[in-house]
Design goal:
Length: 121
């Protein structure tokens, strides 16, 4: 099960970074014009989250020391980012993305609970 969590984390991290690179390179971030500092801070936080997800995921897959701690730290960032995205897309009325981020939220919470439970055993 931990290996699945690691794979989920790596894929999620790569997708987060890839999504922002795509949006930035195609000019699909209109908030950069209206709130550049806030938007760049948000994007920076999401890039850090994606990087931590990749790092934590690979450490889980390779069963490295302190892997669970790093993974839990990364998943905390991830869950916050998913909640933020959920609210953004709900406000936009894009319900496909609302459902998608709900699934990501559930996967994040399940991953945390599995890692915490495995550390208690």
């Amino acid at each position: 099960m931990k290996k699945f969590i690691g794979i989920f984390m790596v894929i999620s991290g790569v997708l987060m970074i890839g999504m922002w690179l795509f949006f930035l390179l195609t000019g699909k971030v209109p908030e950069l014009g209206s709130a550049p500092w806030t938007t760049m801070a948000h994007i920076s936080a999401e890039l850090c989250t994606g990087s931590l997800m990749i790092l934590g995921g690979f450490r889980i897959i390779k069963m490295k020391q302190n892997a669970e701690r790093i993974a839990l730290f990364a998943l905390g960032f991830y869950i916050y980012a998913v909640i933020q995205a959920f609210g953004y897309y709900l406000q936009q009325g894009l319900f496909f993305f609302v459902v998608m981020f709900t699934v990501f939220f559930v996967l994040g919470i399940l991953s945390v609970s599995i890692l915490v439970r495995s550390n208690l055993e």
